[in-house]
Write a structure and sequence with these properties.
This protein has 407 residues and is of the alpha/beta class. Among the domains are: 35 residues, no CATH class; 210 residues, Rossmann fold. Helices cover 38% and strands 15% of the residues. It has a six-stranded mixed β-sheet, sandwiched between helices. A four-stranded parallel β-sheet has the order 8-7-6-9, with helices on both faces. Strand 1 and strand 2 form a beta hairpin. The longest helix is centred in the middle third of the chain and has 16 residues. The protein starts with a strand and ends with a helix.
Length: 407
């Protein structure tokens, strides 16, 4: 299913049996090297499978059984045209890749589905991950479909909606009095000491293999071409790395003719990668996080170096946005495109609004998760509140007239 691994830090190429997580030589993050021997753009285009498994020839894991529930249904999210928002920001064409339509309402389903299939192939259980919520929820939903027990380590500050999903899916959940970085370190230690399989972002190279499929879908949905730019919200950096790997592989295969410029967007209270980029430095200084966008709160980003390199290689950029700009973007996306984004997802559009782009450019904004993940933040994003009225037509007319500013 795959040829082995490649380390971009030291250049090592490894057989499948020479590594599981990071590079044994330099501890760098690894890329999986899939076997593309049977890959065909025409065969993919003719596939009737609407899920990410239509790209099985580009993936390093087997396709799940048809009765694998949500594990078999991941992917196939819509690329939503947003002409009103395009006019607002002065673009020719703007698309929103709405990952909130996934089985558990976030892009993290892609990573968890592929990692679970890898764990199944290795015969590994339990599987553990650190998460601010979305990755854990995705694993909690996918792992049982493969007969694997999920263990989720989550900061106790995670939004209640995400904790509710974890509880409903029946995962073993541990709340940590600390940050995502604390949860990450604890889960790595547990995997090492207990011999469990670890799904952690960047540590497990198969997370990137799942996330890269969003690029495959974007390219195919655009008629096998790349947009000019892709805006991606960034926490630990792994989604952006996956987006880059997906487009890069399509170029290498001749499926598309060029790379898009990648624009990473970080919250002001969690922006170590963006600050390194803006300073022209390769050194990413860890920080203490302070942002309402919990899904991109990573003070010591596990895949920061590769995210930084991906942006530079494509001629892209990093943008920093405030929590106030993120909240405004939630409302703008909802009212301008009817896409409901959680704070971390809306950050990507907030970043777009701060950039000056050409009117002829075509841009894709990756909406990584549904606003239903954090309803409290959504309520903060809207200024108006519904008014209560008596159940009479006269009261309804008066209320509507007042809202519209008419006498």
């Amino acid at each position: 299913m795959f040829l082995g691994y490649a380390c971009r830090s030291c250049g090592a190429e490894l057989r499948p049996d020479q590594a599981t997580y990071r590079c044994p030589g330099c501890a760098g993050n690894l890329d999986v090297r899939p076997d593309f021997g049977k890959a065909s753009r025409e065969a993919i285009s003719q596939s009737r499978d609407p899920s990410l498994w239509r790209y099985a020839s580009l993936l390093p894991v087997p396709v799940p059984d048809d009765d694998s529930g949500p594990l078999r249904a991941v992917g196939g999210t819509p690329l939503v045209a947003a002409p009103r928002l395009a006019r607002r920001v002065g673009l020719g064409r703007l698309w929103l890749k709405d990952e909130g339509r996934m089985p558990t309402a976030s892009l993290k389903d892609r990573a968890s589905a592929v990692v679970v299939q890898r764990a199944r192939a290795l015969g590994k259980s339990p599987i553990i991950t650190a998460s601010t919520g979305n990755a854990g929820v995705a694993l909690a939903a996918m792992a049982p479909c493969a007969g694997i027990e999920p263990v989720i380590v989550v900061p106790e500050s995670a939004p209640p909606a995400k904790l509710a999903q974890l509880a409903v899916f029946g995962a073993r959940v541990v709340l940590v009095r600390g940050s995502y970085d604390d949860a990450f370190a604890l889960s790595e230690a547990a995997a090492r000491e207990l011999g469990w399989y670890c799904r952690n972002t960047a540590q497990n190279p198969f997370t990137t293999e799942g996330k890269k499929t969003v690029s495959f879908e974007v390219a195919e949905q655009l008629g096998w071409r790349a947009p000019d730019r892709v805006f991606v919200s960034v926490g630990d950096g792994n989604i952006l790395v996956g987006v880059h790997k997906g487009f890069r592989e399509l170029v290498e295969l001749g499926f598309i003719d060029r790379m898009p410029k990648l624009v990473g967007v970080q919250a002001q209270g969690s922006s170590p990668i963006a600050r390194a980029f803006l300073a022209g430095s390769d050194r990413i200084e860890p920080c203490t996080t302070d942002t309402l966008a919990d899904s991109i709160a990573a003070g010591n980003p596990a895949d920061g170096a590769r995210a930084l390199a991906a942006v530079r290689e494509t001629g892209g950029a990093f943008v920093i946005v405030s929590d106030e700009e993120i909240l405004a973007a939630i409302a703008t996306l909802g009212q301008g495109s009817q896409v409901f984004a959680e704070p971390a997802a809306a950050a990507a559009f907030a970043g777009l609004e701060k950039c000056e782009l050409g009117p002829g450019e075509e841009v894709v904004v990756l909406i990584t998760g549904s606003g239903l993940k954090d309803v409290r933040a959504a309520m903060r994003a809207v200024r108006s509140r519904p008014r209560s009225i008596d159940p009479t037509l006269e009261a309804l007319r008066a209320a509507l007239a007042q809202k519209e500013g008419t006498p």
